[in-house]
Amino acid sequence: MEQILNQILDKIDGLESSLGGRIDKLDARMDRLEGRMDRLEGQMDKLEGQMDKLEGRMDQQDSRMDRLEHAQAAMSRKIDYIYEETAGLLEFKTATVRFQEETVKTLQRHETDIELLKKIAAR
Predict the structure, then answer these.
(1) What is the C-alpha to C-alpha distance for residues 78 and 29, in angstroms, rounded to an integer?
(2) Is the four-CA dihedral 19, 20, 22, 23 of positive or negative sign?
């Protein structure tokens, strides 16, 4: 009986040793997994930092686009104003040229009348 009991105890010791070895292997695997998880968390933190920077840049770009749109609208208003002023100046120039042409014709008629009057007065 003692021999059977010793065999059982030996068997239990063997199983305990085997189980202890397996637990040690599992602990080693868990340590490796924890190391991998730590590295992955570090990479995720780094990626989140990069995403934050990109979001900041996107906000800056949005702000720049808003300013450019406002500047473009202001430039468009200025161009419209210049176009209207140019059109007004063109009308003024056209009217001035017409007036000048009419004045020249009137002067030519007056010169003709003066020449005729001089001929009449000379007779």
Answers:
(1) 72
(2) positive
At 52, list the tokens: 């934050």
* Cα–Cα distance, 71 to 65 (Å, whole number): 10
Degrees (nearest 5) of the Cα angle 61, 64, 68? Answer: 135
Q: Cα dist. 16→23, 28, 30, 31, 33 in Å?
A: 10, 18, 20, 22, 25
Model pLDDT for residues 32-75, shown as the tens digit of each residue: 999 999 999 999 999 999 999 999 999 999 999 999 999 999 99
pLDDT digits (tens, 9 = 90+) for 21-36: 999 999 999 999 999 9
DSSP E strand boundaries for the chain: none
* Token pair in block for residue 101: 């042409």
Q: Position of tokens 């868990």?
A: 30
